[in-house]
Amino acid sequence: MSRGFTLIELLAVIVILGLILAIAIPSFSSLIQKNRFNAFRRNEELLVKQAQIYLTNNTNLLPTDIGEKKEVLYTDIKEQNYIDIIKDSIDGSE
Predict the structure, then answer these.
(1) How far is CA 74 from CA 23, 32, 39, 59, in A?
(2) pLDDT digit string (tens) for 11-51?
(3) What's the distance, CA 4 to chain centroid?
(4) d(C-alpha 76, C-alpha 78), whole Å
């Protein structure tokens, strides 16, 4: 008597694995997207916090008139070593 699997048993296993993958892949993709978004938010919070520290130490860059706007660039904060390189959570670029 042969101790191998029948074709029906193999097909049943393949179908079951296919169903598991059909459920798992969208869930996994959603988890990856959520983690990327959370990494983006953490980077954003870090950048804002470091920009505030940068402006606290460089008060000459603060607006002097009501309604006046000033810009703090990422490159300025990075060049002054207030922050390390921030990588994009999606494509890994700076």
Answers:
(1) 41, 26, 17, 17
(2) 999 999 999 999 888 888 888 889 989 988 998 899 899 98
(3) 47
(4) 5
Both structure tokens of 16: 């079951």
Mean pLDDT of the chain: 87
Residue 1's pLDDT is what? 58
Distance (Å) of CA 36 to CA 26, 39, 41, 87 = 15, 5, 9, 11
Per DSSP, 64 falls in state: -
Tokens matching residue 93: 């670029």
CA 71 to chain CA centroid, nearest Å: 25
pLDDT at position 84 is 82
